[in-house]
Write a sequence for this structure.
């Protein structure tokens, strides 16, 4: 493999990582508050659909992003109602949301556009790529030109927002009053309740923040990455984001590293499709696709590192009398 | 378990029906929004799924698969394990079955090949579920995340095996070659001609036997009792001398075996090859079947038939109404899981209040 290939893998990684980063950070809030969120997948898909529809109708990507966030937040509230109010099974609720959204988005897309469950291309409804000032001047400088024009520059605003969100989430979770309450509620809701913190309120707020982030993830997928909505286009990204959370032990920076690893492997898979490697031969893409999942299983089993989950995760809170 | 002091018939029959009706009402609103009449649609659905014999045959054919995947989920739930991996286990089970048939169907007697193929489907399914079970019991990794990962691994692996190894040279469709006709499972219409040309086959009888065996194991054997004890109170089970780790691993293996066996119905009974993505979400429908059937054998049978009917009736409905594609029923499945599984006690407080006020009035 020569350098040109590796560099384009890195560029592809930066372009596809925001879907995972937004979703994983969204899941981080929900799960740190003690609510299992396997509905990430459904929220991404619903947001992708809503944002594509609205961006197409208004030809303005910002309205699309807002619509995606709104729909994703509605689903987060539904998940909250089931998990907090009804004390229902959080896994089942997540599954139900994923399956419902997968069916409903196809039906609605078909009903509105009659194109086999997809929306028309968004054209003007997409974001413009931003260039780093001065990057044109160094375009011919070997490494620096590539770095500024392709790896760091030339992306849309949502990419920068995703990477900006990482330190922000880290700070919110670890250094703010809300973050402290979030972790308290996720680790020991009874103690938090005794200390006068509203467990239900904190959990709803955490799910809503997660909803906003998942909304951004879906909007990025539809508006930036593909430029249209396609049925089931979330394609397991929500579950990968969940795996990244486990990988990163529910911490923002580590989780993002997990996201980057997954994005790297998916870029690698596309690059290696059909390429004959010296000494190994052709590596089928489907086998490379398995690597992130296998790595996650190995980490889950504690063979590489021990992942520590929030202690009260998945347990409905019943106020003790 | 039941904080609302409802009688058994209300918890096990009335609540699921109320939840199901709620899910149908939401679905009806969506169908109305799509510009079709919900009542008329329901009529077409019921008619084509249950009222004509041929439609019923298809309904039972789909239900057979769902009984197996439903049992797989229900059995694991008894031990407190949420097996989301039925999809992957069924897929790998299909591989085990196909390997036997593809290698033996030319030379060996079908009397040997068919039972061996069914056995291999259970073994492959069990092996695929054993690993997550083992990792949960011995390494503390959570069964839900591992089984989700194993679904993806199975999907990629099968993609590789089918596309790169099993497609015969020159064939366009992404599936293995056809199985020899002698190994096709006998269809029930050979004995019941009224069923017409429907693929419902003897694996329906196998599914009923599995339901009976499940009831027997859960209610009449000490192992089944131990499984429930682990699910209800692991500490009590531990003090009673039950090996929790051994139970978890064993339950997952049996659960995987049941999910693996689900592959037999559609592959050996109908399509007669190993195709890409043949599971078509049956592993996930199993979750709905188990939740709605409240892990009870009769409940599982009824909800499997209901989901089979939704699939069959849904296909016919989508042919007649272009605004209602088959994906509508994916949405309805999700609604049923939401109402019957996640919000199972939605109406319990109201119902309990209603019954109590009725009791008081009749006591006066």
């Amino acid at each position: 493999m020569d350098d040109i290939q590796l560099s384009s893998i890195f560029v592809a990684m930066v372009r596809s990582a925001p879907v995972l980063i937004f979703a994983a950070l969204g899941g981080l809030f929900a799960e740190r508050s003690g609510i299992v969120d396997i509905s990430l997948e459904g929220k991404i898909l619903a947001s992708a659909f809503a944002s594509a529809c609205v961006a197409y109708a208004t030809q303005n990507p910002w309205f699309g992003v807002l619509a995606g966030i709104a729909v994703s937040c509605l689903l987060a509230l539904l998940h909250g109602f089931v998990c907090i109010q009804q004390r229902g099974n959080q896994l089942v609720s997540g599954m139900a949301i994923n399956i419902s959204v997968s069916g409903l988005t196809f039906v609605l897309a078909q009903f509105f556009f009659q194109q086999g469950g997809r929306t028309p291309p968004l054209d003007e409804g997409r974001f413009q790529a931003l260039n780093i000032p001065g990057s044109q001047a160094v375009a011919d400088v070997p490494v620096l030109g590539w770095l500024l024009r392709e790896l760091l520059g030339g992306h849309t605003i949502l990419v920068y927002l995703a990477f900006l969100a990482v330190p922000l989430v880290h700070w919110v979770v670890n250094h703010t009053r809300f973050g402290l309450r979030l972790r308290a509620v996720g680790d020991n809701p009874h103690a938090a309740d005794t200390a006068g913190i509203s467990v239900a309120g904190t959990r709803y707020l955490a799910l809503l923040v997660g909803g906003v982030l998942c909304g951004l993830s879906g909007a990025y997928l539809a508006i930036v990455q593909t430029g249209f909505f396609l049925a089931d286009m979330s394609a397991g990204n929500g579950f990968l984001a969940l795996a990244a959370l486990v990988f990163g032990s529910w911490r923002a920076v580590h989780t993002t590293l997990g996201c980057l690893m997954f994005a790297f492997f998916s870029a690698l898979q596309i690059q290696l499709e059909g390429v004959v490697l010296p000494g190994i031969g052709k590596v089928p893409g489907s086998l490379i696709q398995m690597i992130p999942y296998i790595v996650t299983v190995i980490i889950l089993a504690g063979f590489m590192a021990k992942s520590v989950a929030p202690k009260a995760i998945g347990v409905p809170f019943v106020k003790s009398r | 378990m039941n904080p609302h002091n409802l009688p058994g018939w209300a918890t096990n029959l009335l609540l699921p029906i109320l939840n199901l009706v709620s899910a149908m009402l939401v679905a009806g609103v969506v169908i109305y929004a799509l510009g079709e009449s919900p009542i008329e649609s329901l009529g077409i659905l019921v008619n084509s799924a249950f009222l004509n014999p041929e439609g019923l045959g298809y309904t039972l054919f789909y239900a057979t698969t769902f009984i197996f995947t439903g049992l797989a989920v229900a059995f694991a739930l008894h031990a407190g394990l949420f097996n989301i991996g039925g999809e992957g286990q069924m897929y790998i089970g299909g591989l085990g079955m196909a390997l036997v048939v593809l290698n033996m169907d030319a030379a060996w007697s079908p009397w040997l090949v068919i039972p061996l193929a069914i056995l291999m489907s259970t073994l492959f399914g069990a092996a695929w579920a054993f690993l997550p079970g083992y990792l949960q019991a011995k390494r503390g990794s959570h069964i839900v995340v591992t089984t989700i990962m194993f679904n993806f691994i199975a999907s990629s692996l099968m993609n590789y095996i089918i596309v790169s190894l099993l497609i015969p040279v020159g064939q366009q469709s992404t599936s293995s070659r056809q199985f020899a006709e002698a190994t096709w499972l006998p269809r029930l219409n050979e004995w019941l001609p009224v069923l017409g040309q429907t693929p419902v086959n003897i694996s329906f009888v196998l599914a009923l036997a599995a339901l009976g065996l499940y009831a027997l194991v859960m209610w009449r054997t000490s192992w089944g009792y131990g499984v429930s004890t682990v699910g209800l109170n692991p500490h009590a089970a531990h003090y009673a001398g039950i090996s929790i780790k051994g139970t978890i691993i064993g339950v997952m293996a049996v659960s995987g075996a049941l999910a693996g066996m689900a592959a037999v119905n559609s592959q050996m009974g109908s399509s007669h090859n190993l195709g890409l993505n043949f599971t078509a979400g049956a592993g996930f429908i199993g979750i709905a079947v188990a939740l709605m059937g409240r892990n009870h054998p009769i409940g599982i049978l009824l909800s499997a038939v209901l989901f089979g009917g939704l699939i069959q009736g849904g296909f016919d409905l989508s042919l007649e109404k272009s605004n209602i594609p088959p994906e509508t029923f994916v949405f309805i499945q999700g609604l049923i899981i939401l109402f019957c599984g996640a919000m199972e006690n939605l109406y319990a407080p109201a119902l309990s209040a209603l019954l109590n006020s009725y009791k008081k009035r009749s006591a006066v």
Residues 137 and 234 of chain B are 13 Å apart (CA to CA). Chain B has a mean pLDDT of 89. Chain B touches chain A through 46 residues (CB under 8 Å).
